[in-house]
Amino acid sequence: MLSMEHAAAAAATSAAASPPAFSFGETRVSWRPFSRDSSASAYHCRTNTCKISLLRTREHTERHHAGVAASYTPQALKGDSVSQTEDYTKYFDFVVIGSGIAGLRYALDVAKCGTVAIITKAEPHETNTSYAQGGVSAVLDPLDSVENHIRDTIVAGAYLCDEEAVEVVCREGPERVKELIAMGASFDQGEDGRLHLAREGGHSHHRIVHAADMTGKEIERALLTSARNSPNITLFEHHFAIDFLVRQEGPTVTCHGVDTVDTVSGEVKRLIAGVTMLGAGGAGHIYPNTTNPLVATGDGVAMAHRAHAVISNMEFVQFHPTALADEGLPIKPKDRHNAFLITEAVRGAGGILYNQAMERFMPLYDQRAELAPRDVVARSIDDQLKKRKEAYVLLDITHKPREEILSHFPNIAAECLKCGLDITKQPIPVVPAAHYMCGGVQTDLNGETSVIGLYAAGEVACTGLHGANRLGSNSMLEALVFAQRAVKPAINYVQKLAGLHQVINEKKEWPRPCAPSLLKKEVVDEILEITSSKRKSMQGIMRDFVGLVRSTESLKIAQKKLCELELDWEEEIFRKGWQPNMVHLKVCELRNLFLVANLVVSSALARQESRGSHYVIDFPELVESKRIPTLLFPTSPVKTSCC
User: Fold this and answer.
1) Domains of the chain
2) Rounded distance between C-alpha atoms, residue 71 and residue 330, angstroms
3) What is the pLDDT of residues 542-578, one digit of tens each?
4) Rounded to the nearest 5 degrees, what angle is found at the Cα of 127, between the Cα atoms of 124 and 128?
5) 201 CB burial (10 A radius; 0-12, 13-18, 19+)
6) Taking the CB of residue 415, how many other CB atoms lie within 10 A of it?
7) 374 flagged as catalytic
8) Full-prediction pTM beyond 0.85?
9) Which residue of the set 56, 105, 207, 374 is catalytic?
10) Residue closest to 284 by CA, chosen among 300, 265, 308
């Protein structure tokens, strides 16, 4: 258990260990570490995770082929039915994976110059963007300044931010917000007709543009409407991206599109493109309690890692301090798949945190109290829960006028009222929940990854903006800025290809995956039941050993348990008749979850200090010499198999 002393020290790391006067100077952090001609300083953590799994490498697939065939019993077979419509292949100029703010904003611009396919795992609106409540941070108040926004971002990021990326985002952000408005997004206005700007934890000024507490939903509506009206955009709804189509020549890896599976029909579809944009969101579901929707299973990072893209800073998983604690509600919600977020703006509007004895506790941990950055508040709540053996704390906004509460937080008020709680009269039970992945696929300032032809933007990317901890409402801003910055280089690359990507012998280059329609339905059901059980076990390991407070011992235990669990899962499903080239949404998701969980653990073990959202008891202090990014490289050559 984290002691009060440990927690107070952890809470103070973002502020106390850094000089109060902010300056760029010689301590400026700038890293484009994947660059092909770069020698930037970083932790080079070469992970062996992609050698563990039968479902991850062709090498293991071939080695165990005979054993798999032997377990493929007649009782498991339906007969000679084919598994899919044969050889579905389509060509586009651009393929976009994900229909959130990053993917849609990018698609709308590149569609002016070519054909675009948008692959979305579920309904197009079912994205992390739609669940974002708070807003978009941008300097639009004359009393504010870009320099203030830069300072706030770097302080919240525990001084690990790439300052070049921070400056780009903070300076270009206001224009990107104005473009959203021009595209039809409607944001709250004050009585003077100007945009109403809210304030959140870690921000020194009011700069959050919002649509009540449903900002993401409004942005998604506006962008999706525009995308549906674009003649050059094709939406592939309910399509799961399996793996990138990549070719390796020496050290150079090039992406030529992606294999997908229609999760309704089971048909595998190959989409070949000049440029692929990855906007697949985060990986909240490596944990059992997350604010992320069910689609957030780390697919983008896992696919990119298998394609040999450089991955960075995966140890920094941000836990939002205030997710609705169902245990504290008068009426318990049924079948909730993700924790309901209580936006940072509630604390920004004056909300106060109490333990269940109605004792205010945040001033004990940080002088900024409820307005401290998320990592500080989350660890402080965690310490209160462990110290007092309670399941949740209370967030109280009842001292504010009823009309103001209902006007600013109608969505939260309605959700709580369904559960028997009136937030204008009663405090809200809250608990930290996995919320945001600060690391991801390493990109440059134009969204380019280390794989040629592959770009990334949004939560799946690591631009360096967030450092060790994200400042509230900077996520959608980052997505907007880098999605737009990726447009010009992507168009230039496609134009240089001049259609060459359409003459690739794709049948020879990449084996084609297939749906498990050769298996009897009851066998598939058994495999999916096993997969569901193992998924819960994996999430339990991450909760118990890789949470808000970590230790070297707990991380090593997690690494061992994850490896054993993954191999057990694979052995069980292969005995049932599963084959390495088969694809199913739930099986592919768990494959990706295991990989991303391992990347988080490997990165956490590499960073022997406490910084931002990574707090490890063995190394409780910030260490200036370790103020460098963590990089993850696979160790084996790129594979062309589907699983």
Assistant:
1) 4-20+320-433 (3.90.700.10), 41-85+512-633 (1.20.58.100), 89-135+216-318+436-505 (3.50.50.60)
2) 50
3) 999 999 999 999 999 999 999 999 999 999 999 999 9
4) 165
5) buried
6) 19
7) yes
8) yes
9) 374
10) 300
